[in-house]
Design brief:
With 391 residues, the protein is α+β, with helices and mostly antiparallel strands. Helix content is 36%, strand content 23%. It holds the Pfam family Dcc1.
Length: 391
């Protein structure tokens, strides 16, 4: 293509009725290069924080299996990826100078001939989203660990998962995955992440609480060494330590490691053990049995059971039953459908533990309820029911 001259450019500007005084003197003349096909390049719009991470040499990872919607992860955050179409064609021009750069360099030549290397009609847009962590528990629950002597463990056909496996299978950032492994009390056994079988976990916890009782240790000061010494013949020492880490807070005093046992978590686990064998439990009977079942010096309270069990105040007598938040769907609409299938009308107090994990950054439970539920008054109390008929 013949290069344009200044005279041609000025004539074009005049035809377009543009005022030369309002324009920069430099002119970009664009032509399509030989390889300027669309489709080879993808554009990704980044917020400044992510841009800085890439510039600092960190990488961003796209995660998801074939049947999953792709997400992009930094070291500690997860983003949904959506294609945004644009009505303006986006052109890729290597070495293109912005008006700021041209202004800073008054010597920049009058006419700049640039070749377009490619173009696009869309770009990937990122939206911060909740990490999709439900699958983590699901994978680890395929084959829970029930002790070193278990025959099942030797013959199991299920996959076991290393950190690398989880990073490739779970749609969440590394930090979010590690945090969740802590939340679900997973532990590493022979290089694989495992969740303890609930009965085995309760057996270990029982060993520890009985030892605390027989030694009359204060619940706020349980010595690690003595626990390992005493219980090491019954169970692997790393399992004893894992239970102390899961159900206690570790601290060091005068060079020795102690644990302050977490009353709420222990009471909650014992409630789960009592409730998992009954469909419904008479509430007052349950409260009595529960208080008798927890270690001496611990006090049971119903608010320890948020997201684990639900009280049915409408039945006579009142009952309580197991309803674990982690068994509910991860998708917002499906979660609400499932909850309204269990109970038609909910108070905000009752439903909050079952939806607060759905709140996105800076989102409130109230905002979620406004979007997915309809409110009404029942005997002077505000209740929420489904916006759509539940099939």
């Amino acid at each position: 293509a013949a290069m344009r001259t200044r005279a041609e450019v000025d004539a074009t500007l005049q035809t377009a009725k543009l005022n030369l005084a309002e324009l920069l003197p430099a002119v970009h003349c664009l032509s399509f290069g030989p390889q300027a096909g669309g489709g080879e390049c993808c554009l990704l719009q980044l917020e400044p924080g992510l841009c800085a991470e890439l510039e600092a040499g960190h990488s961003l990872v796209i995660r998801g299996e074939k049947d999953e919607h792709a997400v992009l992860c930094s070291k500690d955050k997860t983003y949904d990826m959506k294609i945004a179409d644009t009505s303006n064609m986006l052109l890729f021009v290597p070495g293109c100078k912005t008006p700021e750069q041209l202004n800073a360099d008054p010597a920049s030549c009058n006419i700049i001939h640039s070749q377009i290397a490619g173009f696009s009609n869309n770009y990937w847009e990122l939206r911060r989203c909740r990490p999709k962590l439900k699958k983590l528990r699901k994978l680890l629950m395929e084959d829970p660990y029930d002790g070193p002597d278990s025959q099942k463990d030797q013959t199991s056909t299920f996959s076991k998962y290393t950190t690398e496996d989880l990073l490739s299978l779970i749609q969440a950032s590394e930090e979010e995955i590690f945090h969740q492994l802590q939340v679900i009390d997973a532990c590493k056994i022979e290089g694989y992440w495992r969740i303890l079988d609930f009965d085995y976990e309760m057996k270990l916890l029982n060993h520890v609480t009985q030892l605390i009782d027989s030694e009359s240790w204060p619940l706020s000061k349980v010595p690690l060494c003595a626990c390992l010494e005493e219980l090491g013949s019954l169970e692997p020492r790393e399992m004893i330590e894992h239970i102390l880490v899961s159900y206690g807070r570790k601290y060091v005093d005068a060079g020795e490691v102690f644990f302050e046992m977490r009353e709420d978590k222990i009471c909650r686990a014992i409630a789960q053990m009592l409730l998992q064998n009954a469909v419904k439990f008479n509430l007052s009977e349950f409260e009595e049995v529960w208080q008798q079942s927890v270690p001496e010096g611990m006090t049971t309270r119903l608010d320890q059971l948020q997201g684990l069990a639900l009280v049915d105040k409408s039945s006579r007598p009142e009952t309580i039953f197991l309803l674990k938040v982690e068994d509910l769907p991860e998708d917002n609409q499906e979660r609400f459908n499932s909850l309204f299938g269990i109970r038609e009308k909910w108070t905000e107090v009752d439903i909050t533990p079952y939806i607060k994990d759905l709140c996105a950054e800076k989102q409130t439970v109230g905002a979620l309820l406004t979007k997915y539920a309809r409110s009404s008054m029942l005997n002077g109390v505000k209740v929420y029911n489904s916006r759509r008929p539940i099939s």
